[in-house]
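Ops channel
N.P.: pipeline sanity check, posting one input/output pair.
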């Protein structure tokens, strides 16, 4: 479904974010991107969504290269934008319509779907936003904005969900709803997080990224969570001094994971 082949990305000033990454995501897979802040997770998702062009190598969707030239092709662009969606880490970057109703209906309207308004109501109800349909998105709380952004991409009924830290601002009930949805939706999912406590809930396969997007490991989420050396190398757990009953010692910590055990 998605293939990165020797992918590289650098910003114009020369900062290298991803270097020589090759990986495939098959149809229907639920893949979790794990890595510390700055390892290229968000950049990789934006490349997969066609928002950033690869500096080297390629990104392909169903065999078609995702590039600025290809995305100027009307038929491909229309299909791609309807099938591949991205939830930004910061929902404010996605919200610009005057009401929640307009925000959720925006994508279907752009694709000239006749049921755009019905889709807006259906997904607003699913995410508990039905009482806010006439409210301005920018006046909502952070968690509500995240739910509006999520509803706006789900309204497209996409084939591929690219989710960047999707549970960061969600309340526990909505985070649980999203986990259940991802389990049953049958869609291809590529989701980034550095929250180890959520990794096993969001997918089955884990890609662990290190500096410059280097692939440190590709395997099951369960085996990654058991590998403390790997987690430490990826800066997902850390060492610091810890005090127990008046004694001080040093060991690794992955607080969000351990708290859920």
């Amino acid at each position: 479904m998605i293939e990165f082949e020797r992918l590289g990305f650098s910003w114009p000033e020369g900062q290298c974010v991803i270097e020589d990454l090759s990986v495939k995501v098959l149809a229907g897979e639920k893949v979790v991107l794990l890595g510390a802040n700055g390892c290229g997770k968000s950049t990789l998702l934006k490349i997969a969504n066609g928002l950033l062009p690869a500096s080297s190598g390629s990104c392909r969707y169903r065999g078609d290269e995702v590039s600025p030239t290809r995305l100027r092709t009307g038929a491909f662009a229309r299909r791609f934008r309807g099938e591949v969606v991205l939830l930004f880490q910061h929902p404010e970057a996605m919200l610009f319509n005057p009401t929640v109703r307009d925000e959720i209906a925006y994508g279907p309207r752009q694709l000239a779907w006749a049921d755009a308004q019905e889709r807006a109501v259906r997904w607003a109800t699913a995410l508990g936003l039905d009482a806010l349909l006439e409210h301005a998105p920018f006046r909502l709380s952070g968690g509500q904005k995240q739910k509006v952004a999520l509803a706006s991409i789900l309204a497209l009924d996409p084939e591929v969900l690219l989710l960047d830290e999707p549970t960061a601002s969600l309340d526990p009930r909505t985070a649980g709803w999203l986990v259940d949805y991802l389990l049953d939706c049958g869609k291809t999912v590529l989701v980034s997080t550095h929250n180890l406590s959520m990794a096993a809930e969001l997918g089955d396969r884990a890609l662990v990224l290190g500096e410059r997007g280097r692939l440190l490991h590709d395997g099951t989420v369960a085996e990654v969570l058991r590998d403390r050396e790997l987690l430490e190398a990826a800066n997902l757990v850390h060492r610091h001094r810890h005090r127990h009953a008046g004694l001080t010692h040093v060991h690794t910590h992955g607080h969000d994971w351990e708290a859920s055990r």
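N.P.: looks fine end to end. Residues 2-259 form a domain with the Rossmann fold fold (CATH 3.40.50.300).
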